[in-house]
């Protein structure tokens, strides 16, 4: 009998197949032990027939099992674990409650190695040929977390290429590299065996400097890749869909959510190896496509959620309930929770205190609701984690219990306490008590607040008429909403106009022409070419955007906005670009290939140089698409002339996912790959070849041989970086949304809100977010449409009550607040008493900038009033302290 | 009148085994798809082979590149 894990939803005990009764009709001890008579050993599988209009397949992936190859020693050597095992070892709910221990002796390993590409990027039987896309970065994460557990532990990563191709990955990689005692070693590594005494694992590897050597590690982590779901064949058969040669879903790169069967869609890692944000937005994307299909029956089968009536507690004496969370062991490993509970009982107005293993678990939240009702509580303090992720959940719990949801306070004893004071248990417990005492004091002063219901304008504005913008616009329009599509150029299409084929051989221009035709023919899509936004005002559900376009000035009212302004190709200043017309970028090469330009088709030698303009100090990120782009063009050149000498000079080949197959194919076709390092980049100069023809000579220092190799090239092709659109800054300030450190738009949450902004009602897709391949842009475009529909398909939207309010009498109209407001939520209005600041509560995000600068204290931030905050400070420091 | 006629059988469907969408798999992707569809006005059946939803993400300790808690 098991509970799956403490935070499992639903949290239900279940019996697995090893039950003696189920196997041999014996035992039945559990029936007698259960006081609630809850055990039914006679349950049988039940067949349920469901009739639905669409299906989304999101079965995920399975972890590669290294047991299929004996060479990894997994299962045979005790101290060899998989990446997933290690994840569990680090986790508070894991086998040793968050202690990383070796299986052989239950000691902390003092020297850990990671072996990358286990089961991935290999041509051998039992392994996968593709790149699993996630392992490089998850291994780096595990290194960082290992260092959090014990900063002394030396960590070694054996890798081939480090594929830090995603947003923020390159800096994450650098962060890992810069930790003390971390080695990245570029070498295939094999496990030789273990030391019979110490059970340390012996790893053999080779480096350019030292040749083959063996080294012992106390633990080895196999960075295992992603397999298709185990039963992919059964799944394919049941649903009548096709799978690809790897066992993942067969998808159309022009619409990766579509399976081979209409009405059945796919999201997440069954599309192919994807990471979490992509799994999230492909889910929203599949949702959007179901919405297109089933739009006519939207709302027919759903019922609205009804909360119990709210009791009025404004005049009641505060009755506080405090719930102290163990967070598995995340908190209780450091903070003495029972001692904290005992202490909190002594605090004024506290009528109930208890500890909970996970306050966020379903049963715990039910316990909170029951306790509130039973003991007539009117304030709740949750002493657990940061309010950032779970405050909304607990507010909902309060609403469920019939009290105003702003009567909640979260005392953060995890991030602010147990996590940062892991080594000071006593002091941490004392601090936890302080934090909870402050929270209790604040909760006494909390006021009930009302939220605002706003009407929602059903139209959407899409800024940018490239592939992402058009795809998103069509999906929203196909779900019954008007869409205003703005394009700054005279024609739709964006960067896709310059791309002619995809790596899997699709004709981009044919698809693009069809897409553009559908846009223009759609009665609900209104296209504005040569559009310039002059003003963007309003708020979620009710935006007003003023534009000028070829059709003259216009005012557009819309409920949602999608930013899809794309990105641009960097114009290189390196490698003679612009000085010698034999130096091209990949987009230029693609255009000339499409025209069968003789200078391209007749070339004898072509050298491609990767990472031009990025992965450097100016642009500290990877442009993600260039490695695959180079491989695609190299294969096309080889198809034209197999004798052509094609060289790709790279730093790390980042052909992640299934594109690895094309990398291997290029290698088989004789494309030469040579690695260079940023300390010694290639050089390009005009020269004469042995046969007397004028060429560009590219010299690259081979990192294995250590010597310079010169290549004669008729063309040098630069993998130029993808840089943010020139309009990004302006669009960002118009819509009050942020740009990240690289100049691309910054989504609301990297994992969980990948296609929306912190500013409600504004969504994001395509290369405006980060460089990406066309199928990925399509994924995100549908994803943004899906998220926009969760807003547009409702008549009203509710916004927060924790907003600012101006006390007009105290306001002297200085305008300091207007200047600091990030969201343009405050304006000065003329009154008989002069100018006064007025806050628009639906735009206000309650960030507290305005009330902090107000010289007269005229602005109150509700839910964070001076009284509430001062009560917290007073609770911390009952006696005034002397400032020296 | 016409709306009422449509509404009556629809009410019946809402009680029975009629739905708009089946989502197969309750990992992060299936959960997100279900939430979006439900918020956008569709009745969803979420089917999971294991005893709880959450999939692989629920087994992870933290997530890169922010190292936020995975739960």
UniProtKB/TrEMBL annotation, chain A:
Q: Name one GO molecular function term.
A: CoB--CoM heterodisulfide reductase activity
Checking Pfam families in the record gives: Fer4_7 (PF12838), NAD_binding_8 (PF13450)
Tell whether 4Fe-4S is among the UniProt keywords. yes
InterPro entries on file: 4Fe4S_Fe-S-bd (IPR017896), FAD/NAD-bd_sf (IPR036188), HdrA-like (IPR039650)
- Source organism superkingdom: Bacteria
Q: Which residues form the 4Fe-4S ferredoxin-type domain?
A: 802-831, 835-864
Instruction: Provide the E.C. number(s) assigned to this enzyme.
Output: 1.8.98.1
Repeat in keyword set: no
Q: Which UniProt keywords apply?
A: 4Fe-4S, Iron, Iron-sulfur, Metal-binding, Oxidoreductase
Cross-referenced PANTHER family, in alphabetical order? COB--COM HETERODISULFIDE REDUCTASE IRON-SULFUR SUBUNIT A, FERREDOXIN:COB-COM HETERODISULFIDE REDUCTASE SUBUNIT A
Name of this protein: Heterodisulfide reductase subunit A
From TrEMBL, chain B:
* The organism's place on the tree of life at top rank: Bacteria
Alphabetically ordered keywords of this record: Oxidoreductase
Q: Which SUPFAM superfamilies match?
A: FAD/NAD(P)-binding domain
- Tell me a Gene Ontology molecular-function term this record carries: CoB--CoM heterodisulfide reductase activity
Where do the TM regions start and end? Answer: none
E.C. number(s) listed in UniProt: 1.8.98.1
Q: What is this protein called?
A: Heterodisulfide reductase subunit A
Q: In which organism is this protein found?
A: Desulfoprunum benzoelyticum
């Amino acid at each position: 009998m098991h509970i799956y894990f403490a935070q499992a939803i639903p949290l239900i005990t279940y019996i697995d197949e090893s039950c003696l009764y189920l196997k041999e009709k014996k035992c039945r001890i559990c029936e007698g032990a259960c006081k609630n008579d809850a055990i039914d050993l006679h349950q049988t599988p039940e067949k349920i027939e469901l009739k639905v209009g669409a299906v989304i397949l999101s079965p995920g992936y399975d972890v590669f099992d290294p047991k299929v190859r004996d060479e990894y020693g997994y299962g045979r050597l005790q101290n060899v674990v998989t990446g997933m095992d290690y994840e569990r070892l680090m986790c508070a709910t894991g086998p040793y409650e968050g202690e990383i221990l070796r299986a052989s002796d239950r000691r902390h390993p003092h020297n850990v190695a990671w072996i990358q590409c286990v089961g991935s990027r290999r041509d051998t039987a039992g392994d996968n040929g593709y790149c699993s896309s996630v392992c490089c970065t998850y291994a780096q994460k595990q290194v960082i977390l290992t260092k959090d557990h014990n900063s002394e532990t030396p960590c070694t990563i054996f890798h081939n290429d480090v594929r830090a191709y995603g947003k923020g990955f390159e800096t994450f990689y650098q962060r890992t590299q810069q930790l003390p005692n971390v080695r990245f070693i570029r070498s295939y590594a094999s496990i030789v065996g273990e030391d019979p005494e110490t059970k340390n694992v012996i790893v053999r590897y080779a480096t350019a400097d030292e040749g083959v050597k063996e080294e012992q590690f106390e633990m080895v982590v196999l960075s295992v890749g992603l397999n298709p779901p185990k039963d992919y064949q059964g799944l394919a058969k049941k649903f009548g869909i096709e799978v690809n040669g790897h066992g993942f879903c067969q998808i159309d790169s022009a619409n990766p959510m579509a399976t081979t069967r209409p009405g059945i869609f796919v999201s997440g890692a069954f599309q192919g190896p994807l990471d979490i944000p992509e799994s999230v937005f492909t889910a929203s994307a599949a949702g959007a496509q179901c919405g297109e299909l089933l739009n006519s029956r939207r709302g027919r089968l759903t019922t609205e959620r009804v909360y119990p009536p709210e009791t009025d507690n404004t005049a009641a004496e505060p009755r506080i309930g405090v719930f102290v969370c163990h967070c598995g062991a995340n908190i209780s490993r450091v903070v003495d929770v029972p001692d904290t509970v005992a202490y909190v009982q002594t605090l004024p107005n506290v009528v109930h205190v208890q500890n909970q293993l996970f306050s966020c678990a379903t049963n715990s939240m039910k316990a909170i609701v029951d306790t509130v009702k039973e003991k007539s509580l009117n304030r709740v303090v949750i002493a657990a984690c940061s309010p950032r992720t779970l405050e909304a959940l607990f507010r909902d719990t309060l609403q469920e219990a019939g009290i105003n949801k702003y009567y909640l306070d979260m005392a953060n004893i995890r991030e602010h306490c147990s996590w940062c004071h892991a080594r000071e248990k006593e002091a941490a417990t004392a601090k936890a008590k302080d934090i909870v005492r402050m929270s209790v004091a604040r909760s006494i002063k909390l006021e009930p607040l009302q939220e605002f219901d706003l009407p929602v304008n059903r139209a959407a504005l899409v800024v940018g008429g490239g592939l992402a913008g058009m795809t998103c616009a069509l999906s929203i329009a196909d779900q019954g909403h008007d869409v205003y599509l703005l394009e700054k150029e005279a024609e739709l299409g964006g960067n896709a106009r310059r791309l002619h084929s995809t790596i899997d051989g699709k004709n981009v221009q044919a698809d693009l022409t069809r897409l553009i035709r559908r846009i223009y023919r759609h009665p609900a899509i209104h296209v504005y070419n040569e559009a310039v936004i002059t003003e963007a005002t309003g708020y979620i559900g009710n935006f007003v955007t003023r534009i000028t376009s070829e059709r003259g000035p216009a005012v557009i009212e819309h409920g949602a906005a999608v930013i899809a302004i794309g990105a641009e190709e960097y114009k290189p200043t390196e490698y003679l670009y612009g000085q010698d017309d034999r130096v091209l970028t990949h987009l230029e090469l693609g255009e000339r290939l499409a025209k069968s330009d003789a200078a391209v088709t007749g070339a004898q030698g072509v050298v491609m140089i990767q990472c031009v303009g990025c992965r450097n100090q100016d642009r500290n990120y990877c442009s993600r698409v260039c490695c695959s782009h180079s491989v695609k063009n190299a294969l096309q050149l080889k198809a034209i002339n197999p004798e052509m000498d094609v060289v790709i000079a790279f730093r790390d080949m980042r052909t992640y996912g299934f594109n690895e197959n094309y990398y291997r194919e290029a290698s088989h076709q004789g494309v030469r790959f040579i690695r260079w390092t940023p300390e010694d980049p290639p050089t390009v100069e005009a020269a004469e070849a042995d046969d007397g023809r004028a060429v560009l000579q590219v010299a690259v220092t081979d990192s294995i041989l250590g010597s310079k190799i010169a290549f004669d090239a008729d063309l040098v092709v630069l993998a130029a970086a993808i840089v943010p659109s020139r309009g990004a800054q302006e669009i960002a300030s118009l819509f009050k949304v942020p740009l990240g450190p690289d100049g691309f738009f910054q989504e609301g949450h990297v994992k969980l809100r990948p296609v929306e902004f912190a500013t409600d009602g504004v969504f994001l897709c395509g290369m405006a977010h980060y460089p990406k391949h066309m199928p990925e842009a399509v994924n995100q475009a549908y994803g943004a449409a899906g998220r926009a529909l969760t807003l547009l398909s409702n008549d009203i939207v509710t916004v927060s009550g924790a907003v600012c309010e101006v006390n007009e009498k105290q306001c002297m109209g200085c305008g300091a607040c207007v200047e600091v407001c990030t969201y343009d939520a405050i304006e000065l209005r003329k009154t008989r008493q002069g100018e006064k600041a007025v806050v628009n509560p639906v735009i206000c995000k309650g960030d507290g900038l305005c009330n902090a600068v107000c010289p007269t204290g005229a602005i109150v931030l509700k839910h964070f009033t001076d009284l509430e905050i001062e009560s917290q400070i007073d609770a911390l420091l009952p006696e005034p302290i002397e400032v020296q | 009148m016409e709306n009422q006629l449509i509404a009556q059988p629809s009410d019946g469907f809402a009680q029975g085994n009629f739905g708009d969408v089946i989502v197969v798999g309750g990992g992060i992707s299936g959960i997100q798809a279900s939430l979006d569809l439900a918020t956008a006005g569709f009745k969803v059946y979420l089917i999971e082979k294991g005893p709880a939803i959450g999939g692989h993400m629920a087994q992870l300790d933290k997530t890169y590149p922010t190292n936020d808690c995975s739960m």
